[in-house]
Amino acid sequence: MFDLDMRSRKPIYEQLVEKLKELIINDVLQVDEKLPSVRVLAQQLTINPNTIQKAYRELETQGYIYSVKGKGSFVNKQAKSEKSEELQKVRDQLEKLVAEAMFLGMSQDELRRMIIEIEEQVKRGDHHDR
What we know:
By secondary structure, this protein is mainly alpha-helical. 60% of the residues lie in helices and 6% in strands. It has a two-stranded antiparallel ribbon. α1 crosses α3 (49-61) and α2 (38-45) packs across α3 (49-61).
């Protein structure tokens, strides 16, 4: 499904939350699709089931998944509407930051290069919260 960096300073459950969010946001995991059981995913990733459980709880708290007793965890359809709200917040922040960067003298070319660089980092999975 995906790889986790066991040597990263970022806790495993946070990496798991990030990876699952990516899969949901990028429509790899569809609305109402069942996620792997805690036990199965723990075996696949060779990590403690409690870590998976913690990640699933966090995703549920954030509205990305929902649980059905005795059935498992599923992708929540509300994640899509929350995604657009989150995207709007990010756009608003980006607009302010880009305007400030340009005011301070950063060129469009520098901004483009930075975006390409960030995109490559994200594709490699080594993006970090700045």
